[in-house]
Amino acid sequence: MPENEEFLHYLVKWLSSPTNEDCPFGGAAPYSNALVVHPNSTHNPIPASHFRTSHTPLRSQSDFIQAYASARRIASEVSEKEGIDVFPYSKFYIFFDQYASIVSLAGTLLGSAVAIIFFLSSLLLGSLATGLVVTLTVIMTLVAILGTMALAHVSLNAISLVNLIISVGIAVEFCAHIARAFTFPSPALLARAPSSLTAAGRLSRGKEARAWAALVNVGASVFSGITVTKFLGVAVLAFTRSKIFEIYYFRVWLALVVWAALHALVFLPVALSLLGGEGYAATEPEGEIESDLNRRRYRALLPADDGEDSDDY
After folding, report:
1. Most C-beta atoms within 10 A of its C-beta, which of 34, 65, 191, 193?
2. Do the beta carbons of residue 102 and residue 156 sit within 8 Å?
3. 221 burial class (0-12, 13-18, 19+ CB within 10 angstroms)?
4. DSSP letters along 261-312, please?
């Protein structure tokens, strides 16, 4: 058998020999582009090569993802065993390469977003406890959206990951107004809080009273100004003919609006009343909050003063 330089000599001739009747085993047709040969090199005369393999019939998206994962696994095992750099390539691998790292990438990006939310909310609200409650509410909203994606058959890919990151920011918008109204409560509303919610001698710092005041002050605005408007905007996507918009945008954003509103208006006030941080006195002109609520026809939210006839509305 030829070896070393003699082998390279015949290899070059074989790769240049056409496959025809005179030489049916010539390598020009099947292998002329499969090898990179440097016959004059003494260190590495064949620096690169490729060979063909085939998959079993692939019919679904999960089949393509598993096929790509298997190809990467086999290439990695060959690289470790032979000490060479081997990697798989196919045209459809380009579209499914994202699934090799989508889970870890999603965890890194969403975890970083949640950490930033905790830092900024704690800093701006002046309370680690309140910032932690807001962050916990955002995490619960995100988990609910992920569960809805599984039930609605929305796969985790680059498009849905971008929507999840956007959802984290919008979920903060639902929570931020109530958290701020809880941290900086209106003195006029606290003075009208039900006696069962007001701790004796701690009118400005009672968590239950401040949670009640926050809901009375901004709860309606969060519902009508954020929830309803976003729901109407998302509802338009239900009539689209594009499957991309219907699956990856309408379903994800509808779940965002529903779950963010429920967590912000139902869970967050209760969590703040139990685990929220200390509040800070907010100054406002005398009678401003009453006139504002009267102007918006929310007088029923204000309990009647002692001795006042509750029917005089």
Report:
1. 193
2. yes
3. middle
4. HHIIIIIHHHHHHHH----------TTHHHHHHHHTT-GGGSPPPTT--TT-
pTM surpassing 0.85? no
Query: Six-digit token pair at 35?
Result: 């090898």
Q: What is the pLDDT along the chain (313 residues), one digit of tens a residue?
A: 776 777 777 777 777 777 777 777 776 767 777 777 777 777 778 788 878 888 888 888 888 888 988 999 999 998 998 888 888 888 888 888 888 888 899 999 999 999 999 999 999 998 999 999 999 999 999 999 999 999 999 989 889 999 999 999 999 999 999 999 999 888 777 777 776 665 544 444 588 888 888 888 898 889 988 899 999 999 999 898 888 999 999 999 999 999 999 999 999 999 999 998 888 766 555 445 455 555 555 555 555 554 444 444 4
